[in-house]
Amino acid sequence: VAENDCPASPQGRFTERGSFLRLLKSTITVDDYVVVKVDIEGGPELNIVESIAHIPELSELVDELYFEYHFRFWEMAKYWGGGNWGGKTVDTAMNLMLRLRQAGIRAHFWI
Question: pTM of the predicted model, to two decimals?
């Protein structure tokens, strides 16, 4: 999977080859029941989920979404160690889940 950065995706510039978002848009109809699980270690998972939340023509295609959201969670820091969390917190995770649910997607995440 090779996705553009999220700011480019809302402008319709999905990567031509290997793009999950392009595949979703070109093969799924609103009549299909679609469940998406996103867990790409070190990959573009947040860009994919943010794009689905932000772009109505994508969000209308997804019925349910499961997502491993990587964020700073102090209670787990001793197990996970340091890392660059990019300002992501439990609040940013909950905000994304809210936006997905407002778009009509049954959204779930784990850490």
Answer: 0.74
